[in-house]
């Protein structure tokens, strides 16, 4: 075996090693899937996971607190009666039902609920989580607050 054949063999081995090390040129799968979990009054909601493109609902009785936890950094927004509520730390009151919301950080949203009188139907507060890494990943949770 001549010197040229040895060089060719070494180049082929080096090329094979480089292709193996880079994973063979597979595609990038993008950021991990956004998942939102829920807690009511300090207790995790069993089996509750909201995923992008889904709309989940939770029922929160008056006087209870709730928390939504994201596995990725998100921007939180709140919609009540079709209106986006700007900022954080707001107290939203509609027909005797109130939700005092607090943004904890990019991974957690929390609020406390209370009511002034029995109401015929629960107040719906929609919390929207939009991934900061991939704005195409949007999850909605309808929080129904009532008696």
Structure description:
This protein has 147 residues and is mostly beta strands. It has one domain (36-146): Immunoglobulin-like. The chain has one helix and eleven strands. Strands 2-1-4-9-8-7 form a six-stranded antiparallel β-sheet, with no helix packed on it. A five-stranded mixed β-sheet has the order 3-11-10-5-6, with no helix packed on it. The radius of gyration is 25 Å and the shape is globular. It starts with a helix and ends with a strand.
Distance between the termini: 88 Å
CATH fold-level topology:
Immunoglobulin-like
Tell me, what's the shape? globular
Helix content: 10-25%
CATH class bucket: Mainly Beta
Structural domains: how many? 1
The order of strands across the largest sheet is 2-1-4-9-8-7
Tell me the number of helical segments per DSSP (H or I, 4 or more residues long). 1
Low-confidence stretches: 14-26
How is the biggest beta sheet arranged?
A: 6 strands, antiparallel
Work out the strand percent. Answer: over 45%
Assign the CATH architecture. Sandwich
Helices and strands, in order, run as: HEEEEEEEEEEE
The tally of strands reads 11
Rg is 25 Å
- Estimated structural class: mainly beta
The overall average pLDDT, rounded, is 82
In short:
The protein is mainly β. It is built from one helix and eleven strands, in the order αβββββββββββ.
Structural descriptors:
147 residues, mainly beta, Immunoglobulin-like, 6-stranded antiparallel sheet, 1 helix
